Amino acid sequence: MSNNFDAGRRRATGLILKTVALSSVVGLVKIPFALAQDLPHVEESDATAVALKYVHDAAKATRVDKMGVAAADQDCTNCQFIQADAGDWRPCMLFPGKTVSAKGWCMSWTKKA
Ligand code: SF4
To answer: For residues 109 and 83, is the Cβ–Cβ distance under 8 A?
Structure first.
């Protein structure tokens, strides 16, 4: 009786662990799509945005030449921290859970490798 109970408990535990592992993998696959599609746009009034002098329109920022890139050529699309290659609004590593304007800029801009 005890052996049957233990075997059943082991099977149940294994099934739970497999389900959790599979859910995690599926979740990881969905995250990039969900980020690009569903995350809110960062507001320029957001505390992090203010601290980093983020603006939706890079042309309105006070930029300087940096890392061999002219100020006028710097925006979120060619920054190391952008998390997608397409879309008007994209995830940025510095604004977790939100998206930034592809035409935006902040003082943490770093030339994409
Ligand atoms: S870190 Fe880069 S991608 Fe993110 S807001 Fe600043 S310039 Fe844009």
So the answer is: no
Cα-to-chain-centroid distance, residue 101: 13
Distance between Cα 93 and ligand 1 center (Å): 8
Are 25 and 46 members of one domain?
no
pTM: 0.71
Q: Name the residue range of residue 21's domain.
A: 1-38
* CATH code (residue 58): 4.10.490.10
Beta-bridge mates of residue 55: 105
The pLDDT confidence band at residue 7, using thresholds 50, 70 and 90, is low
Among 108, 110, 111, 112, the mutation site with the greatest number of ligand 1 atoms within 8 A of its Cβ is 108
